[in-house]
Q: What sequence folds into this?
């Protein structure tokens, strides 16, 4: 495999520093085991699934942040909002007459968690939508927050806390992190809650976070071992559970009793590759068929050495710059790696690490093995 990168500069496809990532992969696979079932840890049911009907709801609103030190909006939207707010308090002001950079138009968002009741508080995020330079020191005025149905479920107000800061002088400025996004802890008061219907007709549906038929069947089996024949897997993501008669008066107690059950989930053989960052995440149950991998590297070095021709002071000539380009190429001795059938990712990473391959080299090798039909697993390229 030869890779030619024809650019000005120095390129070396066999970066030795990146091989540390491969060592980490080997350690992960060694300590996790080889068989598909053994590579998966035993986890609680509440970490694998959620209860259908118990969910968050997104709220959004548009408000006005005031109290800024000349870092607010310069557009007409903020002036119009300040004019509208003044009219609500009996003061009529033409929006064209408003001249202030101490206010900014913002969007206010929050997640309405399940089972929140009226009067309780939740956090909100505030983001500038105009040309405001900073929201530092700002205070959000009362802003109604609506859901997708158009109803108001919460009202937000309060001073902002930012994760950064900015400072500027006459000739320079400095800034840390983002200063146009802030947060108000417990800044929203819930006005009305959302009913959560999670035990309809005496049944509770568990939704797996990752679809898998084997995992769904294991969840049903573990529940049935303790409560009898009350659960069955309807598909790869949903497990239907009938609430036992002893828990019919308190379905939440039944859910709490099954959330702590330990289950060993199953996972498909999969390799996830991000070519932009050179990141490779491999499952320990990925198998590789009988294959040979040829690995070779080409190092290309291009240098520009401009030569300056300077005439004598009385010759009447001019200074001339003559470019001189030196190109040198060196190809390392290619390596041939043979892997027997039923090889694992551990075998592949160990072999590629032995020949000094970088993660980006390994990405190309994995793609070639997959095209050759020797990779027994799913290759996901992001």
A:
């Amino acid at each position: 495999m030869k890779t030619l990168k024809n650019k000005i500069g120095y390129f070396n496809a066999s970066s030795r520093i990146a091989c540390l990532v491969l060592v980490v992969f080997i350690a992960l696979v060694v300590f996790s085991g080889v068989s598909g079932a053994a590579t998966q840890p035993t986890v609680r049911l509440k970490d694998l699934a959620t209860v259908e009907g118990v969910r968050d709801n997104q709220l959004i609103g548009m408000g006005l942040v005031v109290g800024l030190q000349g870092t607010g909006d310069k557009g007409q939207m903020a002036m119009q909002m300040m004019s509208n707010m003044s009219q609500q308090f009996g003061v009529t002001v033409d929006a064209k007459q408003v001249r202030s950079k101490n206010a900014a138009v913002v969007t206010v968002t929050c997640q309405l968690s399940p089972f929140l009741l009226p009067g309780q508080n939740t956090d909100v995020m505030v983001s500038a939508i105009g040309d405001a330079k900073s929201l530092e020191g700002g205070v959000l005025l009362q802003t109604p927050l609506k859901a997708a149905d158009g109803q108001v479920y919460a009202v937000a107000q309060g001073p902002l806390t930012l994760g950064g800061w900015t400072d500027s002088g006459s000739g320079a400025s400095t800034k840390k992190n983002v200063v146009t996004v802030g947060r108000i802890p417990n800044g929203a008061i819930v006005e009305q809650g959302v009913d959560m219907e999670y035990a309809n007709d005496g049944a509770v549906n568990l939704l797996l976070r990752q679809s898998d038929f084997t995992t769904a069947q294991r969840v049903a089996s573990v529940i049935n071992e303790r409560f009898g024949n009350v659960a069955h897997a309807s598909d790869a993501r949903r497990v239907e559970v009938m609430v036992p008669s002893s828990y019919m008066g308190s379905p939440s107690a039944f859910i709490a009793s099954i959330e702590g059950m330990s289950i060993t989930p199953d996972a498909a053989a999969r390799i996830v590759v991000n070519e932009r960052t050179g990141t490779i995440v491999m499952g320990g149950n990925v198998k590789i068929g009988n294959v040979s991998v040829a690995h070779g590297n080409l190092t290309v070095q291009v240098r520009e050495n401009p030569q300056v021709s300077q005439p004598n002071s009385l010759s009447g000539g001019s200074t001339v710059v003559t470019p001189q380009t030196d190109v040198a190429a060196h190809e390392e001795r290619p390596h041939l790696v043979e892997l027997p059938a039923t090889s694992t990712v551990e075998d592949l990473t160990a072999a590629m690490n032995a020949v000094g391959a970088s993660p980006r080299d390994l990405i190309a090798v994995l793609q070639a093995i997959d095209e050759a039909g020797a990779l027994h697993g799913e290759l996901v390229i992001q």
